[in-house]
Amino acid sequence: MAAPGENLRINADRLWDTIMEMAKIGPGVAGGNNRQTLTDEDGEGRHLFKKWCEEAGLEMGLDEMGTMFAYREGADPDALPVYVGSHLDTQPTGGKYDGVLGVLGGLEIVRTLNDLGIRTKHPIVVTNWTNEEGTRFAPAMLASGVFAGVHDLEWAYDRKDAAGKRFGDELERIGWKGDETVGQRKMKAFFELHIEQGPILEDEDIDIGVVTHGQGLWWLQVTLTGKESHTGSTPMPKRRNAGLGMARVTELVHEVAMDYQPEAVGAIGHVEIHPNSRNVIPGKAVFTIDIRSPHEKVLDEMRARIEAGIATICEALDISFEVEPVGHFAPVTFDKDCVKAVRDAAERLGYSHRDLVSGAGHDACWINRVAPTAMVMCPCVDGLSHNEAEEISKEWAQAGADVLFHAVVETAEIVE
Ligand code: HGY
Ligand code: MN
Ligand code: MN
């Protein structure tokens, strides 16, 4: 396949302005975004993305999970399309670039091809996957998981948020439930551009992460049940303190992850304490453990050690426990040819690059099961993400989008 000329580049100013325009929807309180999945703000962001896609001559498809597929014709309509995208939903205290850079980077590819009057043999489809974050409705990467056959559609519709609202009902409420069967689309390849969400590229002053693998993950929801009682008049030996249990499990998760350094991480991010009153000993604690590693064996060992530790902690405190896996994916190895297209593009364009294992999960991790897939990463300031202070430079966005452009266009094959 003829590679695009090294002078073929995207329009960095237009990409940057488009990202800043999207950032106005669902603003956070500290400069980032709160555009959680299936909220009115998510719906508003979808409408804006659809408007831009239609202005670029794309035809919008929508599946039963609300995933958006903006289709650009190819010279050969029977050729399998090349898909490119990520997600527009954010964390409650999210940044402007997590996910958004990958969706709007895909749109910028189309806009640039339109500017240059370039046709490709294979159609190109810019994609916005519903509920990548999993913060309002667990698990993460929900729609791409249904698309890849990992989750059943009805099971996904039944996921509930903290207020007890169903995913399926909320998708209907915001008016973004499509008719297309999830997963029917066949892809020649899928590419995703994403900020690194870690410090490696910036620390090493490298422009591009060529993502060869993604680490695996377990999300374990733990419910500890003790007994509510007065914080003043209940003698210490008689307490059944679920809050203390949660604190000890939090320390346990950290210690276990530290035993497998540098190839493991672990923390507790979501916590609900009941009744959460200043002078009541917590009778119940519900929280989610997030452990990750590039190695399946490490991941499983960590899980086993943590579950055994929870039993020991609860016995000592006379509290009961339940552990429910609410999210999991095995470590991912991305497609060698797609990874090579990314690496060759960075080389051709003169961007410094290095192979990288993704610390975060991405829709690409599931789509890799049903199509040849690879990811492009760019640095982010201090490696910070899932924080409103998340920041990248326009140059980093340009480097990432240029490499994405070349990888996608080379795979879609330019028609002279
Ligand atoms: O959890 C993750 O890794 C992703 O940000 N949803
Ligand atoms: Mn993301
Ligand atoms: Mn994220």
Features:
single chain, 416 residues, alpha+beta, 9-stranded mixed beta sheet, 4-stranded antiparallel beta sheet, 23% strand, elongated, binds (2S)-amino(hydroxy)ethanoic acid, binds manganese (II) ion
One letter per element, helices H and strands E, the order comes to HHEEEHEEHHHEHEEEHEEEHEEHEHEHE
Portion of residues in beta strands equals 15-25%
| Helix-residue proportion | 25-40%
What's the end-to-end separation, in Å? Answer: 12 Å
Q: Mean pLDDT, nearest integer?
A: 97
Largest sheet: 9 strands, mixed
Number of strand elements: 17
**Count of separate DSSP helical elements:** 12
Q: Uncertain spans, ≥5 residues at pLDDT below 50?
A: none
Present the secondary structure layout:
Elements: H1 12-23, H2 40-55, E1 59-62, E2 68-72, E3 82-86, H3 100-116, E4 119-120, E5 124-128, H4 142-147, H5 153-157, H6 167-173, E6 189-195, H7 200-203, E7 208-214, E8 216-225, E9 229-230, H8 242-258, E10 265-274, E11 280-281, E12 284-293, H9 296-317, E13 320-329, E14 332-333, H10 336-349, E15 353-358, H11 363-367, E16 373-378, H12 394-412, E17 414-415
Helix pairs in contact: 1-3, 1-12, 3-12, 8-9, 10-12
The protein binds (2S)-amino(hydroxy)ethanoic acid and manganese (II) ion (2 copies).
The site of one manganese (II) ion has 6 residues, from loops.
